[in-house]
Amino acid sequence: MSFLTHLECALCGDRLDADRLWNLCPACSKPLLARYDLEQASRAVTREQIAGRPANLWRYQELLPVRDPRFVLCLGEGMTPLVHATRLGQAVGFDRLFIKDEGLNPTASFKARGLGVAISRAYELGVKAVSIPSAGNAAGAMSAYAALAGMEAHVFMPQDVPPLFVAECRALGAEVTLVDGLITDCGRVAAEGVRQFGRFDVSTLKEPYRIEGKKTMGYELAEQMSWTLPDVVIYPTGGGTGLIGMWKAFDEMEQLGWIGPKRPRMVTVQSEGCAPMVRAFHEGTEFAEPWQGASTIADGLRVPAAVGDFLILRALRESNGTAVAVPDDEMIPAANLIGRTQGIFVCPEGAATLAAFQHLRDQGWIADDETVILFNTGSGLKYAHLWA
Ligand SMILES: *Cc1c(COP(=O)(O)O)cnc(C)c1O
Prior knowledge:
alpha/beta; 13 strands; Rossmann fold; 388 residues; 38% helix; 4-stranded parallel sheet; binds pyridoxal-5'-phosphate; 13 helices; single chain
């Protein structure tokens, strides 16, 4: 079912055997990307065949890394609605505004895409225990798929993480360790367990397959828009897997002959309290300096240093996109505006995309007749404390 051929380092280009377990590139410690035989895949499957398959991300199985369907762990992730937000559009005076609502995924965020695929592939490659440092949605998603595989799940969270995130992991059978410190401290404690017990680390971009799950957002966008792409995609960026993944998906689809050369302008949104990618983009650097004293209510955006920084910056620049930081205090009002016009309770990260949209329109960066996609990356339900 899969046309996976090998892994390739995103920086040094080294090729590696895809049927062995890898974390970062052994030569340069940068992320590895999965490569496929796209010519064979284009002969094996058509867009029409895909249209007839079940409404989850495994409809793109030829372009995903799991070789044997017995290892596919599916909770119904993907194929989320692409909503034409006409009432929100009226409220802000814009016609072609769409929301890709990722809050409807299993475990209520798009992290289910990345971890669904990564845990399935780890399961296929014989992994028995997985580990993640996380301040939010990634931990819940990992716990869910590990449960389905019968794997041990080890989660390391900062002590002050909202209680619902902890409850979810525990209910899904994970062992949760609360660490007195920041997410970087959680990373250190998790790494000890990885070394000592041989657990597999599924941190953002530290293994090659979470990005494969996230890239399906790009495939879906094209499929849901009748195999065209929008003018602008606005994406709340932490580690950047979704943005990097969609950018990769667009290239794959063009090679498959499914779309033409047109690309959306990609926009990264971060919080003013943690905006390393925005700073690096505007300074014109290839990599991003770590952000000191990161602080934001949008847990998914509190990523002071991204392993895939250069890939995010490349995608923004190649697409003629941009990067915008919005203040935290614009997020809840933006969420409420989406809520009362469209009936979607969005997370603060998703709300940040509307705030960024409004800044970009004010600056004339978005024209009135363009088609714009806002990514609501998760449900507001796990963040209800922000409305208390
Ligand atoms: C993790 C997360 C993000 C950031 O996603 P990346 O792909 O790592 O940039 C955004 N929103 C939510 C709700 C998240 O959980």
